[in-house]
Amino acid sequence: MREVYFIKQNKEKWLGIEQVIQGKIKKNPDDLSSLYINLINDLSFAQTYYPKSNTTVYLNHLSSQIFQKIYKTKRVEENRLLYFFKTEVPLLVYQYRKYLGYAFLFFTLFTLIGVLSANHDKDFVNIILGEGYVNQTIENIKSGNAVGVYQSGSTWGSTIGIIFNNIGVGAKLYIYGIFGGVGTLWALSSNSVMLGAFQYFFYDYGALQDSARGIWLHGVFEIFSMVVEAMCGLILGASILFPRTFSRFNSFKNGFKDSFKIFLSTVPFTICAGIIEGYVTRHALKMPLFLNLIIIFGSLFLIGFYYCIYPSIVNRKTNTQIHDAVL
């Protein structure tokens, strides 16, 4: 059977299941189980004949959602926040994992542009970072305190300001996705080029190691969150540009709902980054090197595991539960 005919034949049924999942149509447990088994049959057919199709991805997501609706326990309801971070977000990240790959790809490209631009044009850093900041940092480097800029202001005052600033940057990366993802790429390019120029600036003055000891204490959570927020913006843009079997409005509504949940998951990491920058980074060069490395690589493992590895584990576990439930 051709995929187009397969979609046409089952589209109304799938849309009806979406209505059930969203709570717009009520079904008794027997009817829900019947719908679920029917949907699993469609998914098995799609996996056999259209394994790399968006239809298969869609049906897999739909079956996961109805499974959660049927088998969600009171314990899950009582621990909604835990369920959100432990299961719901990882499943969404797995579903949209290609957008995380795109975000990392563009982030790397834009950062390299910043490095190459700073290398070929010595005035580029002044334009990007500001002449006052550059001159102050040069003086700090000469005095042996490359991260001196992080030592100004009170700890709690700096922390609050940093957290709100970083959340604002993340919100722009996400919300600008409404312009078909182009706005997200523009915001990502601005921040990534700045990062590349910033790091080359320290390399050019022979202070890259000292700067890395301080900047990446908070930078791991901050920058990784920025990439995930860009991922959310790209999901939002794609939901508008590529509605698939949905109407454009329903596609946007689903894309917004899913991407917003992923965006919310970055907020704890952004807050942690602000706390580290306000309270810890100012002591970076006084700390034992091994402590710097523990914080940096510990942060990288934690956030990298959560967004890159854990989603596959949760998806595999959920699929196993679905298979067992059907049998």
Automatic annotation (TrEMBL):
User: Transmembrane stretches, by residue range?
Assistant: 99-118, 173-203, 215-242, 262-281, 287-309
Q: Key word Chloroplast present in the record?
A: no
Protein keywords: Membrane, Transmembrane, Transmembrane helix
Pfam families linked to this entry: SpoIIM
Q: What is this protein called?
A: Uncharacterized membrane protein SpoIIM, required for sporulation
